[in-house]
């Protein structure tokens, strides 16, 4: 317990011992730590205190950001809606593979630090957040429309199909949806379209992460089935390696013919 450290005795501790204490305490104890060790004149100890204060500032800023990201969800709950889901997709632009949609329902005031538009996050961070989202979500659903459906119905309609499938995979039907810049046809509930919603709504941001991680995993598996197109790195997007693979090997069973009409192979 930090309370056991008397201010007048802290100078007897080596810097590495103080550093170890700072590494092991919870963020709720940061200010107490600083109040105890700030009187230590050693620059190394002052640096440890400064580091904790900077971490506290970042935590505060992140918590304020997350509070704002709950505004749409909390407003919907305050209006009387019971089951509010955020919807987003991944994979509208690639030349190969499916489009994947997700919907996530959170309790009011949910906090998941780091949640943001999936495109702004590293793959490692997305994978980390994926697990936390699954754990904290009240409900979630994943929907997929494959390359054949994209070719048959076009990418926009296939995206709507994936979104409707994601919604149908919820354990309970939502009564309000927060969508990233779209209104989904054929879904008879309240829909709120939010421009850049994956950066403004925690449930839309979470849905973007679930959709992206799910689709990326599928493309890793496709890379093993169809080597030579660099699917594991480009995820089906039109990179130079991908185009080179098409020219060398032709198209695969998962390519979108409608996206390659003007490409000679």
Automatic annotation (TrEMBL):
One example of a Gene Ontology biological process annotation = mismatch repair
Q: Under which EC number(s) is this enzyme classified? A: 3.1.26.4
Q: List, in alphabetical order, the Gene Ontology terms for molecular function in this entry.
A: manganese ion binding; RNA binding; RNA-DNA hybrid ribonuclease activity
Task: Give the first-level EC class, as a single word.
Answer: hydrolase
What cofactor requirement does the entry state?
A: Mg(2+); Mn(2+)
Domain of life here?
Answer: Bacteria
Gene3D superfamilies linked to this entry: Ribonuclease H-like superfamily/Ribonuclease H
The record's subcellular location field reads: Cytoplasm
Q: Which NCBIfam families match?
A: PRK00015.1-1, PRK00015.1-3
Q: Sum up the protein's function in the record's words.
A: Endonuclease that specifically degrades the RNA of RNA-DNA hybrids.
For this entry, the protein name equals Ribonuclease HII
Q: Which species is listed as the source?
A: Peptostreptococcus russellii
Lineage, opening ranks = Bacteria, Bacillati, Bacillota, Clostridia, Peptostreptococcales
């Amino acid at each position: 317990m930090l309370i056991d450290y008397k201010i007048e005795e802290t100078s007897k501790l080596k810097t590495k011992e103080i550093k170890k204490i700072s590494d092991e305490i919870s963020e709720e104890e940061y200010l107490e730590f600083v109040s105890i060790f700030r009187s230590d004149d050693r620059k190394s100890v002052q640096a440890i205190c400064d580091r904790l204060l900077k971490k506290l500032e970042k935590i505060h800023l992140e918590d304020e950001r997350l509070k704002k990201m709950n505004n749409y969800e909390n407003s919907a709950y305050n209006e009387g809606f019971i089951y509010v889901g955020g919807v987003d997709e991944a994979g509208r632009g690639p030349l190969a593979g499916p489009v994947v949609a997700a919907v996530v329902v959170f309790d009011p005031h949910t906090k998941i630090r780091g949640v943001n538009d999936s495109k702004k996050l590293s793959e490692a961070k997305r994978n980390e957040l994926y697990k936390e989202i699954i754990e904290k979500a009240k409900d979630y659903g994943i929907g997929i429309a494959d390359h054949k459906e994209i070719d048959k119905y076009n990418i926009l309609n296939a995206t709507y199909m994936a979104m409707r499938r994601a919604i149908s995979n919820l354990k309970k039907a939502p009564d309000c949806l927060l969508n990233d810049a779209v209104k989904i046809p054929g879904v008879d509930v309240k829909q709120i379209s939010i421009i850049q919603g994956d950066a403004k709504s925690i449930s839309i941001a979470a849905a973007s992460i679930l959709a992206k991680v799910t689709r990326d995993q599928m493309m890793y598996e496709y890379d093993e089935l169809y080597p030579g197109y660099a699917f594991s790195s480009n995820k089906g997007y039109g990179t130079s390696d991908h185009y080179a693979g098409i020219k060398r090997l032709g198209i695969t069973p998962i390519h979108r013919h409608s996206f390659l009409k003007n490409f000679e192979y």
